[in-house]
Automatic annotation (TrEMBL):
Residues 216-297 form the Multidrug resistance protein MdtA-like beta-barrel domain. Residues 69-211 form the Multidrug resistance protein MdtA-like barrel-sandwich hybrid domain. This is Efflux RND transporter periplasmic adaptor subunit. Residues 373-404 are annotated as: Disordered. The lineage of its organism: Bacteria, Pseudomonadati, Pseudomonadota, Gammaproteobacteria, Lysobacterales. Its main location: membrane. NCBIfam families: RND_mfp (TIGR01730). One of its GO terms (cellular component) is plasma membrane. It comes from Tahibacter soli. GO terms for molecular function: efflux transmembrane transporter activity. Residues 109-179 form the Multidrug resistance protein MdtA-like alpha-helical hairpin domain.
Length: 404
């Protein structure tokens, strides 16, 4: 047998094998059954009934946590730090001692002011006694009138000096008091910026520590200007505000709307709002970003469906509704605001009790027959399919051929 005949025989065997595999495979079986073989196939889908709930309408925004008050504690007098009386991160109450500056210089200045006042008071006493004697002697012409007038001016001058001495004492007392640095507010101490032994200057740029008041605490956020009138009309009583984490999955804190800014930002078309939170558990931290949900009103007896039931097409939004005969139909609907918990408000198109498809919509078309399943329910396993009539004889034939 020539080489070409051998190649032709091998090629014919390969083609015959491919044709046989195509006919015996499931795809080939489907082709033999024809295009309408799966027309009546039942499609498993997840179905949820349309419900009625009281829906709270919210406005969502991204907010930044801000301390109610922030104070950089700076020394008001110069000197050497004698002691630091707080720990970093400590809760500090108002008027608690934060640090002490060496007070000896200011104590001596205070003592000098006190001594100077006593000296001037003694001189004033002597001048007043002299003036009294001059008043008695002027009546007997023992003292010139000019001397009496000069003594009166001396007394007045010394009285003014004593008043100035009292003011100097007060000033020295204040300067001495500044050597004991106290907390001006209740707050949380930050990182210490000076150490014991450092020399500090009054009013220096770097403070000793920064105190932030976090009980209560504020969150600042913005809303589009079209919401301004809506929010202002509801400002008769403080609106409820919820702070959520960045993933919108966890409620961090609840508070009240406290301030609506008095102007709109012309560059962004937004306006600022401020909400106040008690923050007793320190869940909010200055500088933190949180998602804000501002509750504006509640709609009673609203029609809601799971958000995943809503589909969008060229003609708008729709859902698949399961009818009594277990077929589906496309139902156009008008959707509203987010109802929370993965649900959405339906303002038109559905009735309470109707069943809508929430999973499996991509395999559906109007009129398709479905198997309605509850959420989390799995479809039953398909029954084993009996082999085709020609399959077993063919297998037996192959066995016989192998045996023969």
């Amino acid at each position: 047998m020539s080489r070409w005949k051998t190649l032709l025989i091998v090629a014919a065997v390969v083609v015959a094998g491919l044709i046989g595999y195509r006919l015996l495979s499931p795809a080939g079986t489907a082709e033999r059954r024809g295009p309408g073989a799966d027309a009546n196939r039942t499609i498993p889908v997840t179905v949820v009934p349309v419900a009625v709930e009281d829906v709270a309408l919210h406005l969502d925004a991204l907010g930044t946590v801000q301390a109610l008050n922030t104070v950089t504690v700076r020394p008001q007098v110069s000197g050497q730090i004698d002691s630091i009386n707080f720990k970093e991160g400590q809760e500090i109450k108002k008027d608690e001692v934060i640090a002490v500056i060496d007070p000896r210089t200011y104590k001596s200045q205070y003592d000098q002011a006190v001594a100077k006042k006593k000296q001037d008071e003694a001189q004033l006493g002597a001048a007043r006694s002299t003036l009294k004697r001059y008043d008695e002697l002027i009546q007997r012409n023992f003292v010139a009138g000019q001397d009496l007038e000069n003594q009166r001016h001396t007394v007045a001058q010394l009285e003014a000096t004593v008043v100035a001495d009292a003011a100097a004492i007060d000033n020295a007392r204040v300067q001495l008091g500044y050597t004991t640095i106290r907390a001006p507010i209740d707050g949380l101490a930050g990182i210490r910026q000076v150490d014991v032994g450092n020399l500090v200057q009054g009013g220096q740029a770097n403070g000793i520590v920064v105190l932030t008041q976090v009980h209560p605490i504020n969150v600042v956020f913005t809303l589009p200007e079209q919401n301004l009138e809506f929010v202002r009309t509801l400002d008769a009583e403080p609106l409820d505000v919820v702070a959520l984490d960045r993933s919108d999955n966890h409620q961090v804190a609840t508070g009240k709307l406290s301030v609506i800014d008095n102007q709109i930002d012309a560059t962004t078309g937004t306006f600022k709002l401020k909400a106040e939170f008690a923050n007793d558990d320190n869940a909010l931290w200055p500088g933190q970003f949180v998602n804000i949900r501002l509750k504006v009103r509640t709609i009673a007896n609203a029609t809601v469906v799971p958000a995943q039931a809503l589909q969008r097409g060229p003609e708008g939004t729709y859902v698949y509704v399961v009818k009594e005969d277990s077929t589906v139909a496309m139902q156009p609907v008008k959707s509203g605001a987010d109802a929370g918990n993965g649900k959405i408000l339906i303002s038109e198109g559905l009735k309470v009790g109707e069943r809508v498809v929430t999973e499996g919509q991509f395999s559906l078309k109007p009129g398709a027959k479905v198997l309605a399943l509850a959420p989390g329910e799995t479809p039953p396993a398909p029954a084993a399919t009996a082999p085709a009539s020609g399959d077993k004889p063919a297998e037996g034939t192959r066995r016989r051929r192998g045996g023969g």
